Amino acid sequence: HDLSLNAGGSVALNDTVNVGGAVQIQSASDLFANGDLTTGGALAFTAAGNVNQASGQAIHAGLTLAGTAQSWNMQAGSTLAADQGLSVSTAGSQTLAQVVSGTGLALDAGGDVSLNERVRAGGDAAINAGGTLLLADGQLVSADGNFASQSASFRMGSGSALVAGADAHVAVRGDAQLSVLMAAGNVVVAAEASLTLNDAVGAGGAAQITSGAGIAVNGNLEAAGTMSLSASDAVHQAAGTAVHAGGALTASAAAWD
Q1: Is the model's pTM score more than 0.70?
Q2: pLDDT at position 228, please?
Q3: How far is CA 150 from CA 112, 116, 143, in A?
């Protein structure tokens, strides 16, 4: 059976809810998910206010999951999962814990997107942040297909990694600090301000790295195919690091040291 809930105020799910079919929940205010919610069909949330998932709470859709809210806040150990596609759209920020999509993943926020725990997409993953895109220390974001992100700035914490089964495209309107970035296909990183590569960057295809300011290379940078690096200011390569391309390598910078 399906379930449809339309509330003129806030909604609080305080206990376990299991529905064999589809679920639609609309709230004119906030939505509080304190107990687990599982559906056999599609799951759709619409909240005029904020969606808040309690610590350890799990939301799981048997088909697709689509959420729209002012902001989405997941406490430590909580899970947002769908066996098929998963999308979350917020006017403000998203603070996320474990996010798992069986196929495509789309996160779209007018503010910051903070990825504090494991994020995995069985297909393509697209993340758009009007503010900062932040991946916490030691955490992993993986997409079996393509990965694409757009943000005002990008911060990858120490020991974090971004892995794509196809291409990876990172576009940043400001500065970016990246850790491990690996793609089976091509890698494109474009930062309009400074770019810092703090760990290994690897492409199974071509790599294109550009910065509207300088580039700091603090880890190995490798591409099985061609590689191009372009910086308006200097490229600083740390001692003991390697920049290697299986094909042609082209570079343009004010200086290289």
Answers
A1: yes
A2: 98
A3: 11, 18, 16
